[in-house]
Amino acid sequence: MKLQRKSGLRALTVGAVAITGALVLTACGSDDNSSSSATPSSSGQPTTSASAASSISCAKGQILASGSSAQQNAIESWVKNYQQACAGATINYKTSSSGEGVVDFNQGTDAFAGSDSPLKDTEVASSKKVCAGGEGISIPMVGGPIAIGYNLPGVDSLVLDAPTLAKIFNSQITSWNDPAIKALNPGATLPSQKIQTVHRQDESGTTDNLTKYLKGAAPSAWPYEHAKAWAGKGGQAAAKSSGVAALVKQTEGSIGYFELSYATAESIKTVKINTGASAPVEATSANASAGIASAKIVGTGADLSLDLGAAYTTKTDNAYPIVLVTYEIACDKGNKPATLPLTKSFLNYISSTDGQAQLTAAGYAPLPDEIATKVRSTVAALS
Question: CA 29 to CA 18: how far, in whole Å?
Fold first, then answer.
């Protein structure tokens, strides 16, 4: 079994290097050649980069990371910029799922992992085996809306509320001209077509956050507890956010959930949510930031886990309620000496003002300033 595990790791490294290498080539093909790349010190400690991304302080080496597909588009952009600026650095992020990322981290494979839900107590306990003298902590990094995408030709604007959405995803509302949907869309011509729901087949933080919203905003209509594994009745399953988006894109009459960046990339129409505000709220980066601004830090010590409960029931104008925050999971203490410099350098960059500023264009929401400031302090203290 040990030999098999090592072989798998070698295969992962080769595959991930190919992906990040392609990103570097894309970056190097830019018409702007005025930037120069920094050369990391021989010790692997960060040195200041002279590239256009002035906030990047480079370190060299190679790190493995994996997990959340929700942050894939953000990570790809960040990795491209970092590796363009930093010669001798390779960051291999394998997009899988939040659950798989946490497992990889707690098995000692990853320098950090991406998860759309903070670590559970049992996962923190397991992390102590790989964090010498410390434990895994949840560091919020990527905010954004969970878009409800639909494929209904002729219906260019669709409004739903939490109870109706919960009943759709639990197969209690099964046709597009159901009275509950018609009441929310009086000006729309809705077909009698059957609704085809699409959900994640893998354990997903996106599912966890959507079901937190459904349970928080419509508890009588959503009888299940929130979880990474899908519990609703019926529907089709697809792997990763990209798989759900692709299935919605190709299936007339379908509805599914995924990060806004996937809806934008696939030109999928998204639902506006009736929250009780003065107007239904669209899934946008700015509206998600307004929702996330109500989050409270509930983690202890270095952990920065957030409670998003207030966002789910908000009636504030332009505050989108179905939001998630992707965390980077790392050891507060006891990170491996060989990977710590590059891990800290990369996390420092993506939490910086420059790093966060890239999120909006990719369909994500930058962290509110108060939370971002605490994130930067936490990253700086990793050891």
Answer: 17
Position with higher pLDDT, 222 vs 44: 222
Contact 382, 344 (CB under 8 A): yes
Rounded Cα–Cα distance for residues 159 and 367 (Å): 27
pLDDT tens, position by position, 97-134: 899 999 999 999 999 999 999 999 999 999 999 999 99
Q: d(Cα 115, Cα 101) in Å, to the nearest integer?
A: 7
Q: What angle do CA 111, 116, 120 make, to 5 degrees?
A: 80
Cβ atoms of 280 and 294 closer than 8 Å: no
* Pairing relationship of beta strands 89-95 and 136-150 according to DSSP bridges: unpaired
- Within this chain, do residues 156 and 286 fall inside the same structural domain, yes or no? yes
Phi-psi region of 40 (alpha: psi -120 to 50; beta: other; left: phi over 0): beta
- Tell me, yes or no, whether 156 and 266 share the same domain: yes
Give dist(CA 75, CA 276) in Å, integer: 34
CA 156, CA 158: separation in Å to the nearest integer? 7
Query: Is residue 182, in this structure, part of any structural domain at all?
Result: yes
- pTM recorded for the entire structure: 0.76
Beta carbons of 106 and 136 less than 8 angstroms apart: yes
Burial of 220 (0-12, 13-18, 19+ CB in 10 A): exposed
Residue 160: CATH number of its domain: 3.40.190.10
Range of the domain at 194: 146-291
* Same domain? 280 vs 368: no
Instruction: Please tell me the total count of domains within the chain.
Output: 2
